[in-house]
Design goal:
By secondary structure, this protein is an alpha+beta fold. It contains five helices and five strands; from the N terminus they run ββαβββαααα. The chain is globular.
Length: about 160
Amino acid sequence: MNVTLTVNGQKHSVDIEPRTLLVHLLRDKLDLTATNVGCDTTSCGACTVLVDGESVKSCTMLAASAGDREVTTLEGLSTSDPAADPATWHPVQRAFREKHGLQCGFCTPGMVMAAVSLLKENPHPTGDEVRTGLEGNLCRCTGYHNIVAAVLQAAGEST
């Protein structure tokens, strides 16, 4: 089947098997590999992307369900090449870097995308609200303290 969707501001028309998951379309067909495959059961959140601005775990969403929708991956948050000046990064990306909100980095793309969605819904969360808002994303390195600090910094909160 053919699915047409907009990913990171660019329209794509892709031939896929009907059972293709969104995460595999992004990684395998569009070469957007920042979206990680972790558990395949929506338990870890490593595959979190934004679909029409809402965080979605792409490992259990059929790619066909994203047809005619707007998908944003980690690659789509920055206004330039990620290796370029961090001043061009999304505020959440910058805060994760500045607050060391990552350890091994595997969960980071999903955490960043979930944080972007959280801050859209609640621009000035408390630490407890950040923890609750990100509870569907797991960090196996247990780096939650710095992740929360990063989200609060991105929100403009004092940590």
